[in-house]
Amino acid sequence: MIPRLPRNIYKTLDLLLLQSFTRFNQISYSKKPQEVRILQYTHTFIHSAYYYPTSKSLGDNAVALVTTMNKRTVWNILDHKINLIGTNQSTKITRQASLSTEHRSFERCDYLLITAQSNMIDNMEKLEIEAKGVLVEIPIKRPIYFAPKPVVFCVSPQFAAEQWQTFLVQLHVSKRYGAHLHLYIVSMVESYFKLIKEYEKLGLVSIEPWLTIKFPITDGPYLEPNRNVELRNQAAAHTDCLLMYKESASFVGILDMDDILIPTANSYYEEFEREYAGDWLISALHYDKYDYKTIKVADLKSQSLSSIVKNAERLPTKDTGKSFLRPERFNST
Fold first, then answer.
1. Sheet of strand 62-70: strand arrangement
2. What is a single Pfam family found in this protein's UniProt entry (predicted)?
3. Which of 35, 55, 139, 179 is the most buried (most CB within 10 A)?
């Protein structure tokens, strides 16, 4: 997904997509704003909450929440009020969070990715959210301050995944050009998961368990969230990854498993630095994506990266491209 804000310069390059033969229809959205009906009570799902003792872009003692919210909560979802309470050993403070999104509500599904951000208290030990006088504690995570590599690729959540051939191509190409893979997993076949775990032991891959949205009640007037969120809520996982590596990675890429980027330089880092050319007005590089088909093998011993590339055939179709960000310039995707 292409980040929409801030309104800075985007450079466009090329990206390779290796695919199987399953195709999906592209969804078209109307450009005319549609009226959003307001409901009295709606759902919010909190995916993760990060606490930054120090941050280059968010400030000291910053808190960032990754949430999925129903846009019908209020007329303008960004006007919704969320109170956060931070506690350390001696003090408790309350702050109102500012909400932001990279999505336009009239073009999207009912549930949107919303980030909530505020600056809290030194040495915060507990974070709570308040609604109508009820406090709920939120588990907090710390960002990674030392990334395995300067370039991190955030790979979309894997659902019932079984295409281990694509994973091996992505892994070895990314390793060759200097990127670390951070994978979000909902479900996959056991043998595939065991294979990924072996590469995790080598430090080439990080695995992040990822939960689908679940509410105790999804009857009317509510909507079943997983059927009313765009692309199975990939943006939430991408945003979680961006916030995780915000303070440590030089560049963060937003990819699907079958998005294969082969740079023209010796490494991803070298190419991205060249294309940014030290211009801080450029917040992201956007790569166009072209479809290819190739031959896959049935067993691990027969897997050959060179044969996959040699047998790749470009298709006449072109898919939505991908972006590679400076993490300090974005808080969500």
1. 44-52, 62-70, 111-119, 98-100
2. Glyco_transf_92
3. 179
